[in-house]
Design a protein that fits this description.
The chain is mainly α. Helices cover about 70% and strands about 0% of the residues.
Length: about 350
């Protein structure tokens, strides 16, 4: 995300004007920081509620012990980012990072339009500090630098919003898995887990029978001519996947969330994304799972049991897909070219 073209439109002339004015005022940055923040609250009084140390405080602004350090941090970050914008070729921040800034701004309820308030406050503060050198060109230079930083933070706010949406989706995934479904899953799992080794291989074989191209998703299979049942890496992998799926199903209602064995969802999502797994591939694993369990417990199999295992599988699939999306976003954020 930081590698995006955020410094386009910021010229050498603008850089010179920003540096010249910053050099003139930075010795007074403490007082100017407080002035800058005071202007923000004068322009938009409701903004006070976005700051935990202000919203319930009756202490005058200039006496609030937490305001000046915060104001100075924000003012310095804004000004130093402006000074370094053209030289660095991207938006930079001091003692923090854009991802954290985006998450914090999203969490406190900052909206895109709030940056117009900070822009007005910044321009007024600097104009009053360097009245003798202020010009329309200098105003445009500081305005452009502010807008570059705002765009970068807004982009990370959107990433934070997406991540929050995915998290909410994960937290809501167990809402439709009932006690009755749990009982059916546990009953059938207790009956078959002693044979999990053979069933794991059967499960995986069914996946490749249903979707032969899936073989290319596995490094130990795609260039191998060894029969499946003789491949030394297949059974351990198959057993790991089958056990993870079944044990996650058994624990789903009890734990209130998707759980995995000897791994975690983040790693699973990254691995599935890296190997090219698509959402529709989970329909293949679902069918293979249901057929495997049905054939293992034909005497107790029912439509209700099929639905229970299907729902449990879907919960796990949704959780992995959510992490795949995060992995995709992370890769896009890192690998976007700077030109």
């Amino acid at each position: 995300m930081e590698e995006n073209k955020k410094s386009v439109g910021f010229t050498e002339e603008q850089e010179a004007l920003v540096v010249k004015s910053w050099n003139a005022i930075k010795k007074n940055s403490g007082d100017l920081s407080l002035k800058f923040f005071t202007k923000i609250l004068e322009i938009a009084p409701p903004a006070k509620n976005m700051f935990s140390f202000l919203k319930d405080s009756n202490v005058p602004l200039d006496q609030n012990p937490k305001l000046k350090p915060h104001a100075m941090s924000v003012f310095l970050m804004t000004c130093e980012s402006a000074v370094q914008l053209r030289k660095a070729g991207k938006v930079t921040v001091r003692e923090s990072n854009l991802k954290k800034l985006g998450a914090t701004h999203f969490k406190t309820g900052v909206k895109d339009e709030h940056f117009e308030v900070t822009k007005q406050a910044l321009l007024e503060t600097i104009q009053e500090a360097v009245t003798e050198m202020w010009s329309e060109a200098m105003k445009n230079a500081w305005g452009e630098a502010h807008d570059q930083l705002a765009k970068a933070i807004i982009a990370e706010m959107k990433e934070a919003a997406n991540a929050n949406l995915i998290t909410n989706m994960e937290e809501n995934t167990t809402s439709s898995f009932t006690e009755e479904q749990e009982a059916l899953v546990v009953k059938s799992w207790n009956a078959i887990k002693k044979d999990s080794g053979d069933l794991s291989l059967k499960f995986f074989t069914k996946i490749l029978e249903i979707a032969p191209p899936a073989k290319q998703l596995f490094s130990f299979l795609k260039d191998s001519n060894v029969p499946l049942d003789q491949n030394p890496k297949l059974k351990p992998h198959a057993m790991s996947v089958f056990l993870m799926t079944c044990e996650s199903a058994v624990q789903l209602q009890k734990t209130g969330k998707v759980t995995v064995r000897e791994s975690n969802l983040k790693k699973l999502g990254a691995t599935h994304f890296k190997t090219g797994v698509k959402d529709e591939h989970f329909e293949v694993t679902k069918r293979a799972l249901l057929e495997t369990i049905q054939e293992a417990v034909p005497e107790m199999w029912s439509e209700a049991m099929k639905n229970a295992w299907g729902e449990a599988h879907d919960q796990l699939a949704k959780a992995i897909i959510a992490e795949m999306k995060k992995a995709g976003q992370d890769q896009n954020g890192i690998s976007k070219p700077s030109s």
